[in-house]
Amino acid sequence: MARPSLREKIIESGVRTLHERGYAGAGVREITSDAGVPQGCFTNHFRSKEAFAATILDRYHERTQAIMDGTLRDKGRPPVERLRAYFDAITERLEAAGWRYGCLVGNMSLEVPEQSEVLRTHLVEVCRALTDAFAEAVRAGQDAGEIRGDLDAGDVATFLLAAWEGAMMRMKVDRSPQPIEQFKRVIFASILAPGVKAGSPQ
């Protein structure tokens, strides 16, 4: 197997470093040190820290999309089960991190919009893609009679993402899974069609 390029090592390390330390807390020195590469390698591959952060967001989003492909977009599951599978898959990752770091997209959404218009615009695009994936699952649930039909799918999707990010933010503060579990209980109790249990077709 080919050895990873220096650029790839910086990106892989950068996902972890920005996730754990935040945009402001992760300097070029920390990023390259964590990657085990000379500091000069950074400027060879990225024109700025801002451009680097955009690349990190893209890599993180690719990983999230891969999880969505196996959950939200899995047509072999009932739609509500797709939603639950997605939240459960992310919960496993949050638990593995000790309930400490939450979502990189949410973290950066709190930190960078006033610092960088480039990153703010990038975050808008990422959040739109996440919302679209939720909306697709919600519409499928409405078509199957699993999710309330009196709700606009786009509104539900926007609320799902906002509430999920908020739950992860509170999780980081509490260092506890309780906000995540509360989110799941309230969300599914709120959006399910009457007589439908979460994860079960009507």
The helix tally amounts to 9
Distance between the termini: 48 Å
Model regions low in confidence, pLDDT < 50 over at least 5 residues: none
- Briefly note the CATH topology name of the largest domain: Tetracycline Repressor, domain 2
Major beta sheet summary: none
Q: In one word, what is the shape? A: elongated
Number of strands: 0
Assign the CATH architecture of the largest domain. Answer: Orthogonal Bundle
Give the amount of beta strand, in percent: under 5%
The CATH class label of the largest domain is Mainly Alpha
Rg from alpha-carbon coordinates: 19 Å
Model description:
One of its GO terms (molecular function) is DNA binding. InterPro entries: Homeodomain-like_sf (IPR009057), HTH_TetR (IPR001647), Tet_transcr_reg_TetR-rel_C_sf (IPR036271), TetR_C (IPR011075). It comes from Nitrospirillum viridazoti CBAmc. Pfam families: TetR_C_13 (PF16925), TetR_N (PF00440). Keywords: DNA-binding, Transcription, Transcription regulation. The protein has helices spanning 6-25, 28-35, 40-45, 49-70, 79-96, 104-111, 117-143, 153-174, 178-191. The chain is built from nine helices and no strands. The protein is elongated. Helix 5 (79-96) packs across helix 7 (117-143) and helix 8 (153-174) packs antiparallel against helix 9 (178-191). The model has no long low-confidence stretch (mean pLDDT 92). The chain folds into two domains: 1-46, Homeodomain-like (Arc Repressor Mutant, subunit A); 50-191, Tetracycline Repressor, domain 2 (Orthogonal Bundle), CATH 1.10.357.10. The protein is mainly alpha-helical and 202 residues long.
